[in-house]
Design goal:
By secondary structure, the protein is mainly alpha-helical. The protein has 23 helices and eight strands. Helices cover 56% and strands 6% of the residues. Strands 5-4-3-6-8-7 form a six-stranded mixed beta sheet. Strands 1-2 form a two-stranded antiparallel sheet.
């Protein structure tokens, strides 16, 4: 006999037959089930990451540099990364391609410029959630995802335009796909293996060799420690690495064919020499990441003792993977003298998995308060960055764009303002006047070295754009105006230029304009 529905508890206008089978007391449970489904949770993660993506101006130098490269590629052929019109091979193109696609759909703005790191963060969250759900249950997966999403390092990293979060997300996908491929010790899941190799290839296209080295350093020793020799060798199945080769090889081969010195510069200079030498910025002691990783996960790092205790007591394949993953990444990036916070982001997923499992088993309700505090901390950090907008040239760029003509030239005087071409929407590269003959230039890791090395791949364009500082006055020629952009107080460099007029000035940048001399001197 069918029990009649109670009008007081069910809206008669609701025609969804699924409600007929739900008891009156189970409506809330049904909605809770829907809101905690994988699709709903991963959609909420995407919305959480995207909501504040466009709040603040681009930070310098990284965000201005990489957003500018993506914009220039969008204006040109979309194949070669360009920094002020010069081939820029510090990093491969995947981040730029993703940002180019976003800019073509959403316009050239700071929201679109941050799509790639947001995608990397989402991939990290999705891969970690689905793996923890499979291995440790739904509740552990939900807590771990909430914990990861509200870590300051994860949230801010998802909104910071550089390659670190995207490569960290792809490395996370690769490691967990390899682990899924060997989930059954008696066989290997070939489709998961191919997926893992493709993720490695995309990571290679994001930041280079660490896209392959780190997954190998994590998964290989983890399997060998379990004496799973056969599966370790099976990770090199030809179908896997051939799929990865098909994804990554075309761009690298084309870059070498077009620029014969590419392989040496990209693989030797930007990988091995940067890893082994000490002549780069950001020198730090070897133990720095032991402080950085907990700081990136405040306030959740308070559960670290419980997390490591659980990892030790419940030793098993998955817990061993998380623990070794953290240790391997921290050791790998602690060895070189140069260190950046973003380098350790590939350890964020396993570290949060350990913390999440510690929180779940702590049998305390305090984690809900920590969730609120962590969420407010994340939003507060982004809001503070938006309010401070340190060193942004955006106001000067907007003032310049409102006044300059389409054929006018822009000259940067002894400084490169990474974000100004982006915000001013300049269609052509700027001229940079500096001391390009300085013998110490190749030894200092800064903006001048970046442009100096880029000019080696295109000497003709480099010669036209990298201008000697003592000849800057010669640029005022022809019928069009010249706009000089410099830091405040650099009057000596522009002394003697006739007709120089101030246009804009603030604490970061000053803009001055000199009218061209129609019928006068010809340009050098």
């Amino acid at each position: 006999m069918r029990v009649p529905r109670t009008p007081a508890r069910f809206d008669s206008s609701n025609n969804d037959p699924r409600f007929d089978a739900i008891p009156a007391g189970g409506v809330m449970q049904e909605w809770r089930r829907r809101l905690t489904s994988p699709l709903a949770l991963l959609t909420l993660l995407a919305l959480w990451l995207l909501a504040s993506l466009g709040w603040r101006p681009l930070l310098l130098p990284d965000e201005g540099r990489y957003a500018g490269v993506a914009r220039e590629m969008l204006l040109r052929d979309g194949w070669v990364p360009l920094l002020n019109g010069l081939p820029f091979f510090h990093k491969p193109p995947l981040l730029y391609w993703l940002d180019m696609a976003a800019m073509s759909l959403l316009g050239v703005n700071q929201f679109a410029a941050r799509i790639a790191p947001a995608m990397g963060a989402w991939l990290m969250g999705a891969a970690l959630y689905l793996s923890v759900r499979r291995w440790h249950g739904e509740r552990a997966a939900i807590v771990t995802l909430a914990l990861l999403a509200t870590c300051p390092g994860f949230f801010v990293g998802a909104q910071y335009v550089n390659h670190d979060m995207l490569v960290a997300g792809l490395i996370t996908v690769a490691v967990l796909a390899f682990a899924r491929a060997v989930d059954d010790p008696a066989r290997i899941a070939l489709h998961w293996l191919v997926a893992a190799w493709c993720a490695c290839a995309l990571a290679l296209l994001t930041k280079g060799l660490i896209g392959i080295v780190l997954p190998a350093l994590i998964v290989g020793p983890w399997l060998l420690a379990q004496r799973r020799w056969r599966q370790t060798l099976q990770l090199l199945h030809p179908l896997g690495w051939l799929a990865g080769l098909a994804v990554a090889a075309p761009w690298f081969v084309a870059a070498q064919a077009r620029y014969p010195g590419f392989f040496d510069y990209f693989f030797i200079e930007q990988h091995f020499r940067r890893y082994m030498q000490t002549g780069f910025n950001n020198m730090a002691p070897p133990w720095i990441y032991l402080l950085v990783l907990p700081a990136l996960t405040l306030p959740w790092c308070a559960w670290a003792p419980e997390a490591w205790r659980r990892a030790w007591l419940r030793r098993g394949p998955q817990m061993g993977l998380y623990a070794w993953w953290v240790v391997a990444v921290v050791i790998f990036f602690s060895l070189p003298a140069s260190k950046l916070v973003g380098y350790v982001l590939p350890a964020l997923a396993p570290w949060c998995a350990l913390l999440g499992l510690g929180v779940v088993n702590a049998r305390t309700r305090w984690w809900r308060g920590s969730l609120l505090a962590a969420s407010l901390l994340c939003v507060g950090l982004v809001a503070a960055l938006a309010w401070q907008a340190p060193r942004s040239a955006k106001p000067a760029a907007l003032a310049l764009a409102a006044q300059m003509g389409p054929e006018d030239r822009v000259v940067f005087v002894d400084h490169y303002f990474y974000d100004l071409p982006f915000y001013a929407q300049l269609k052509h590269p700027v001229i940079i006047a500096s001391d390009w003959a300085d013998p110490a230039l190749p030894m200092r890791d800064n903006w001048r070295k970046e442009l100096y090395e880029a000019a080696h791949f295109d000497p003709a364009t480099g010669g036209a754009l990298l201008w000697p500082l003592d000849r800057v006055g010669e640029l005022v020629c022809g019928p069009h105006s010249v706009w000089f952009v410099s830091r405040p107080g650099r009057k000596a460099h522009l002394a003697g230029i006739p007709g120089l007029k101030p246009v804009y000035a603030d604490a970061v940048v000053q803009v001055q304009m000199a009218s061209g001399f129609a019928g006068g001197r010809s340009c050098p």
